[in-house]
Give the backbone structure.
Amino acid sequence: MFYTTSKAIENALIHSIFAPGTSNRESAHPGKGVTNKQRTMSITEIISSGANVTLQVTAAQLGDFAKDLIGRTRQEIAREVEASRSEVYYTREQTASLLNVNPSTLWNWDKKDFLKPVRVGGLCRYRKSDIDRILTSK
């Protein structure tokens, strides 16, 4: 799942390090005796580089890229789910007490996006990590 890039892209990425599985390739221009280096990159590397290029890919290559992207997204979601399982949540009253504010202040902070509660069904809970962030900034 690698695609060849031109000299212009290689110049844009001159300071990058080759990732495992990539390679350099040289091709001679007929009659000119000039060597043009080309670099093989994955779609992900091309996207990360920010290069403005047009790609020609096969359906199979696009499918491979989609599978890779879906796999990485699943891993990221799994990490976030695991982190949320270990998170501690407080009620509105507990949060107001910890922050030494009136419960109506929590409502105002919610409207101002300063401290957003997690709503599950009809329940309103506040993350300990969000409360700690506020306490450390005071």
